[in-house]
Design a protein that fits this description.
- By secondary structure, the protein is of the alpha+beta class.
- A six-stranded mixed sheet has the order 1-4-5-6-7-8.
- β5, α3 and β6 form a beta-alpha-beta unit.
- α1 runs antiparallel to α2 and α7 packs across α10.
- The relative contact order is 0.10.
Length: 253
């Protein structure tokens, strides 16, 4: 994670607590979507550091189409922001217009928020266009001075743009997640390692790799890490990495 400049850390510490009180009061009053947009606009400025008059715009919102707000820096749209009323539960279906517009115009990131809950999505420029959840956080649960919580907020800060904070975090999440770990555990080197360890625990034990693989898939790993696009993508990534290692060994040999 990129180092947070001192002045940004001080701003986050000061403004986070302030907006937690504002959001709590707004939630108690159950304000509508328009009023929530006003608060989110102020948060983008005061917490995340964007210029309220030149870098935060609603020009991409036409009768509720596309998105409510956008952050635009140096004529580049960095984030599209879909805002819902503070008391409304967020759903992926709320993203549809913003994701479609973002994909059409090359905008990588979409934020869905009701002021309290913030969800950051990355648009996948596939056919068909898709999106993946990068991270989510509850603004009211953040500790203003806690390093980890400030790092979460820094992903969306203006200062984080120049340091590619959100891209770096995405690379980390892509490489360290339950699907990749599951794929590694199912790989041949891991199965062989487990076989060696089992024989060490029980000397003379006869165990074949197929048996270990069957137990892993059938009894140890959960179905959600074994099936679906994310699981297949992780397996392909692990297989590709193993292929690179094997090729390097052959080259050295």
């Amino acid at each position: 994670m990129a180092t947070i400049p001192k002045r940004v850390s001080e701003r986050l510490s000061k403004e986070t607590g302030k907006f937690q009180r504002i959001l709590k009061g707004a939630s108690d009053r159950d304000i509508n979507e328009s009023d929530t947009v006003v608060i989110v606009t102020d948060m983008l400025s005061r917490v995340f550091g964007f210029d309220k008059y030149t870098e935060i715009t609603s020009e991409y919102s036409i009768r509720g189409t596309f998105c409510d707000l956008a952050v635009e820096v140096d004529d580049n749209v960095e984030y599209l922001i879909e805002v819902k009323a503070i008391g409304l539960d967020l759903r992926e279906s709320h993203l549809r217009q913003a994701v479609g517009y973002g994909a059409q115009h090359g905008v990588q990131w979409v934020i869905l928020t009701n002021g309290i809950i913030w969800e950051i999505y990355r648009i996948k420029f596939d056919k068909p266009v898709g999106h993946e959840l990068l991270t989510t956080f509850n603004f009211l649960d953040l500790s203003p001075r806690k390093k980890e919580d400030q790092e979460t907020l820094f992903l969306l800060c203006k200062e984080g743009l120049s340091r590619a904070a959100i891209e770096d975090y995405h690379e980390h999440v892509k490489g360290v997640n339950k699907f990749v770990i599951s794929a590694i555990l199912q790989s041949e080197p891991s199965i062989n390692m487990l076989r060696r360890e089992l024989r060490r625990v029980s000397p003379g034990l006869k165990v074949v790799t197929k048996e270990i693989e069957s137990i892993l898939v059938g009894e140890v790993l959960k179905r959600d890490v074994l099936e679906g696009d994310n699981a297949e993508e992780a397996k392909a990534r692990v297989k590709k990495a193993s292929g690179r290692v094997l090729k390097k060994r052959k080259t050295k040999g």
